[in-house]
Each structure stands twice: as C-alpha cells, then as structure tokens.
Amino acid sequence: MKKYLGFIAATFLLVEGFGIGAAIAGSQYGAVATGPNGAYGWAYNFDSAEGAKQYALSACEGSCTEVVTFSNGCAAVAKGGGYFGWAAATDETTAKNNALGYCGNDSCAIQVWACTDH
After folding, report:
1. What's the rounded mean pLDDT across residues 5-30?
2. Number of structural domains, the chain?
C-alpha cells in the first residue's frame, strides 16, 4: 500500500503567535526501510539522518534490513524478482523512476517512498 507522505518546498512562512515572519527552512531528513515479505517503514521531516533511520526501522511492519536515508528531497525503494534498487532525488517522480531503473528487473515495483516537506 502506497501512502502520500509529503511534498517538497524550498521555503516556507513561519507563523508564531500573532506575528508572521519569513524563514528559510533548514535541512530535514527522511528514511525508507524495507525487509522480507513486503515489510516497510518510513520517516520524514526529522532533524537528523540517524533519527529518521531509527524511526523508519521502528515503524517497520516486520523485520526491515535495508534503509535509505535522504535530506531535503525524496527517496524510493524498488524490489522484484530477487532484485533491489533505490534512489534519492529532489522530487518523488524522479526518485521512483530511478529506483525502478536501478532495480534492473521488469518485475520490480516501488515498495516504499517518502519525501521531506522541503
């Protein structure tokens, strides 16, 4: 089951109390994890790559063994026919297409993907 996890934004408005101020977003990290029998987990919008990795592993619905971390963008993992491919990119479509391309088998399908908010 694929779930929409977020979309990339380069900057955002920060609203605090009654005031509005512009702020440039800092680095955000995410991770996608996969394992046997379709197990997967994901994380996005973490302050550290390690935090995202640990959350993705803990959110895994099974026993995840492969983890891909990324920052300020998207990542996807594809599997099929005993093959495995992953990619990170600035947008969801590119990450998914590249993961499928790196997987190297026509039976490959996207298993999990995630994007940070910027």
Report:
1. 38
2. 1
Predicted confidence (pLDDT) at residue 27 exceeds the cutoff of 60 = yes
Residue 51 lies in a domain: yes
Q: In 1-118, which ranges are E strands?
A: 12-16, 19-23, 29-34, 40-46, 66-71, 74-80, 83-89, 109-115
Q: Is the dihedral of CA 35, 62, 37, 8 positive or negative?
A: negative
- Paired tokens of 95: 């990450």
More confident residue, 64 or 17: 64
Q: How far apart are CA 113 and CA 106, in angstroms?
A: 19
pLDDT by residue (tens digit) across 100-115?
A: 999 989 999 999 999 9
The verdict on residue 15 lying in a domain is: no
DSSP state of 10: S
Specify if 98 maps to a domain.
yes
Phi, psi of 115 (to 5 degrees): -135, 145
Kindly report the number of other CB atoms within 10 A of residue 22's CB atom.
Answer: 8
The tokens for 31 are 């991770």
